[in-house]
Each structure stands twice: as structure tokens, then as C-alpha cells.
Design brief:
Elements lengths: L9 E2 L2 H4 L9 E7 L4 E6 L11 E7 L5 H11 L3 E7 L2 E8 L2 E7 L6 H7 L5 H9 L7 H7 L5 H18 L7 E6 L14 H22 L4 E5 L9 H12 L3 H8 L3 H13 L3 E5 L7 H7 L1 H27 L1 H16 L3 H4 L12 H9 L5 H22 L6 H7 L1 H8 L1
Antiparallel strand pairs: 1-2, 2-3, 4-8, 5-6, 5-8, 6-7, 9-10
Helix pairs in contact: 2-7, 6-7, 7-10, 8-10, 12-13, 12-15, 12-16, 12-18, 13-16, 16-17
């Protein structure tokens, strides 16, 4: 680490190096020490797989040196290199350039591009399986999705960025594991080079960890039962199919963990994927009502999706009143200008967006944009959509050919209240 260029000169003993995750034969020296923590640089042992170029400057166990501290240190030092996380059979990588993450990868099936696109609502299980059946294993899967018209190049780019962010923030949920950092200018085995600000990843990672833990706690409730949707069975494969099949034997979360042999966080992520894909329902015991919608509301991505859909529906209702008075062409033109003006403040959500038939907007396109926004996306999405609603409400209230604007607004009050909440 550049922040610790002056060696402390203290060589670690086997007893003191073991808690840091260093293996036997790994040379290491203390670079910086505090009463509770220390920064160590080292040279890997011969059996440790390292990049072809780069120098191992950090090796820690996150039980003693949290991931957030490591990322903050790399950011402050402006370091470039490769950060590797390992825990049992799990491995994840983050590439840094001048202190910020430019790419991330994982060996876990739940972190692949397909599941990430499903969680974002950008693609269906059927489309994933169809593309996989025609996919050449030697080619990039994302490219195949574009070539088959399932995604546009822009949607693929947003999907790759979202996938890399998910991999990075997923590390915050692990209670243990080893981190190694090799310093040097290294490129990922991928032409994509992203820009993921490290401070934002730290904020999002902590929030994501807490949300996942709440989801696990909700699943562990003894009253909760998991129910498969049989029609989805043929579209599932790999670990997600194993979890799906196991739900048929064990409909409660805790026994399910024992059956599939995975940790609670991993199983929860697969259940969330199946839930988002429509392959799983979440209920209380048979005498209780379906809780699928309640759990969906507890999911940040699903809350955002519902917010966008409700707002688009409200905009459509208001625009419909104006179209009936002025005709579609004139309303589309005026509404398009209003969107352009609001897009100056919220380009990530609205830049290039144009009203369609009936002066309506496409909700799923806005959802995909909203999910790709940074940490404060809920506030930005709410303010942007509220500005569009305010514009149409103003037109309705002041239009000479709308005889009772108060009645119009009262008829959509439930949607207006949702956007205000």
C-alpha cells in the first residue's frame, strides 16, 4: 500500500501470521500497526496462485480487518491492482485503477450475468435458457444476448455494470474470508472497463448486507413456507434447479439449508432469484394469506420497480385526459419537452426518453435505468417522476377543455398518494 511505504521491520511469526490468513511459508512484514489492527505486506508462498504481474502487498482475514477498511485504504492510496477474496470454494476478484473499481468477477453461479439480469427484470428465465441452448461455450454470453436481439448494446452495458456492482457489494455479507491485494497495473480478462467509485460501493455494500440479513431473518420465521411454481421447472438449471427441487422436499427455510448443504446467505440469494423469476412463492402456513407481495415490498429493487410502475400509470392517466382534449400529437410534443427539461437534472433516468403511443412511457425501460443508478437512486427517481407528474397535473388543472380537474385528480388520488409516500 502506498500509504505504508515505510516498513516497520517486524517479521511475523507463524503464530501471529495465522490469524491474518497467511499460509505457512509466506513471508510478511508489518507495515503499519495500531492497537487493534495492522497492515501487512508479503510475498506469496510458491503454492499460492498469483497474477503473472503485480506484487502482493496485502493479505488479511476480514474477521480482523473488515472489507470496508481495506477498500477505503485502497481508495485513499489511489492503488491499482487486483483484490482477491477467497473462502472455502468461493472466490471473487475486483480490479482497481487509481483507487476505484473497474471490474469484478466471481466463480459463484448466483453472480453470473444471467441471474443478475433476471434480478434486474431485464430478461426472463425462458430467454436465458433459450440463449444458453444456442450459446457457443467459447463466446461471451452477453454478446450472444445482443446478437439474438434479447438485449440492446446499451442494456448489456448496464447489465455488466450492475453485475460487477452486485459482485462487489456481495462481499460485505461474508463474515470471514481472506483478502489478498496485488499491486500493479492489471487488466481483467474482459474488454469491459467500468468505473465504480469505491466510496459508493462501501455505502451500498453495507446497506445490501443489512437488507440480505433482514431477508434471511424473514425466511427463517417458522411460519414461512416456500412454494414452487411447477411451470417454471423446465426453465431452471444448475444450483437454482437444485434449490428449486429441494423446496419440494423441504418447504421451510431452516430444513432447506440442511438439505442443499449451502450457507444461509447463499440459499437466500438463490431463493430471491427464484422469487424474482416467478418460480417461487413465499407464504405463511397454509391457513395464512400469500406473503409473496409483502416480501417483494421488502426488497429494495422490487420497491423501486413498484414505484416506477405506479408513477408511469399515474402519468398515463393524466396524459390520457389531455390527449382526449388536445389529441395525441400535441400532448406528446409538449410532454416530450417537459421530459427533456427534467432530464437535465436526472439524465441517468430520463435522457433520451420520449413519450410513446397515448403520450405514455415504457415502465420496464425506466425500471432498468433506475436500477442502474447509484446509491441515492430512490430519492432521484422519486423526485424525477414527481416533477413529471407535477407538470401534467398543472396542465390538467389549467386546461380550458377539462371541465372538472379536481374530479380527475381525485380519481387518481391513490396513485398520487403512493408517489408522495
Amino acid at each position: 500500500m502506498r500509504e505504508c511505504d515505510q516498513p516497520g521491520g517486524e517479521t511475523l511469526t507463524p503464530a501471529s501470521s495465522a490469524p491474518l490468513g497467511l499460509t505457512e511459508g509466506e513471508n510478511a512484514r508489518v507495515r503499519r500497526r495500531s492497537p487493534r489492527r495492522g497492515m501487512v505486506d508479503g510475498r506469496p508462498s510458491e503454492d499460492l496462485h498469483t497474477p503473472a504481474d503485480g506484487r502482493l502487498t496485502l493479505s488479511v482475514d476480514i474477521r480482523s480487518f473488515p472489507l470496508s477498511d481495506v477498500l477505503a485504504w485502497l481508495h485513499r492510496a489511489g492503488s491499482s491492482g487486483l483484490l482477491h477474496y477467497s473462502r472455502q470454494d468461493q472466490a471473487k476478484w475486483m480490479w482497481f485503477h487509481r483507487g476505484d473499481v473497474v471490474f469484478a468477477a466471481s466463480n459463484q453461479p448466483i453472480d453470473r450475468l444471467g441471474p443478475s439480469l433476471i434480478r434486474a427484470g431485464s430478461i426472463s428465465l425462458e430467454q436465458i435458457r433459450s440463449a444458453e441452448r444456442r450459446h457457443d461455450p467459447g463466446a461471451r454470453f452477453g454478446k450472444a444476448l445482443v446478437e439474438r436481439g434479447i438485449l440492446t448494446p446499451r442494456q448489456l452495458w448496464a447489465g455488466l455494470q450492475r453485475q460487477a456492482e452486485e459482485i462487489a457489494v456481495s462481499l460485505f455479507a461474508y463474515p470471514s474470508g481472506r483478502l489478498c491485494f496485488w499491486e500493479g497495473e492489471m487488466q481483467p480478462d474482459n474488454v469491459v472497463r467500468l468505473s465504480l467509485p469505491t466510496p459508493r460501493l462501501i455505502r451500498d455494500g453495507s446497506r445490501w448486507r443489512d437488507e440480505l440479513r433482514r431477508f434471511v431473518a424473514a425466511l427463517a420465521d417458522a411460519r414461512i413456507r416456500l412454494q414452487r411454481v411447477p411451470a417454471a421447472q423446465e426453465c431452471l438449471a444448475g444450483v437454482e434447479r437444485e434449490v428449486f427441487d429441494a423446496v419440494g422436499e423441504e418447504s421451510a427455510f431452516v430444513p432447506l439449508l440442511q438439505r442443499v448443504g449451502l450457507d444461509a446467505l447463499s440459499v437466500a440469494r438463490f431463493l430471491h432469484l427464484l422469487h424474482r423469476a416467478g418460480a417461487l412463492r413465499i407464504r405463511r402456513r397454509e391457513d395464512d394469506p400469500d406473503r409473496t407481495q409483502r416480501v417483494r415490498r421488502d426488497d429494495p429493487g422490487e420497491r423501486l420497480r413498484c414505484q416506477v410502475h405506479d408513477a408511469v400509470k399515474l402519468l398515463g392517466e393524466l396524459a390520457g385526459v389531455l390527449v382526449a382534449a388536445d389529441g395525441e400529437e400535441r400532448v406528446v410534443q409538449r410532454f416530450g419537452v417537459a421530459i427533456e427539461q427534467v432530464a437535465e437534472r436526472f439524465p441517468g433516468l430520463l435522457a433520451g426518453v420520449r413519450p410513446g403511443a397515448g403520450a405514455s412511457l415504457e415502465p420496464e425501460a425506466l425500471v432498468a435505468r433506475a436500477l442502474a443508478l447509484p446509491a441515492d437512486r430512490d430519492r432521484d427517481v422519486r423526485e424525477a417522476l414527481r416533477a413529471l407528474v407535477d407538470y401534467l397535473e398543472f396542465e390538467v388543472k389549467n386546461h380550458p377543455d377539462v371541465s372538472d380537474p379536481d374530479a380527475v385528480l381525485q380519481s387518481v388520488e391513490s396513485l398520487r398518494a403512493t408517489l408522495r409516500s
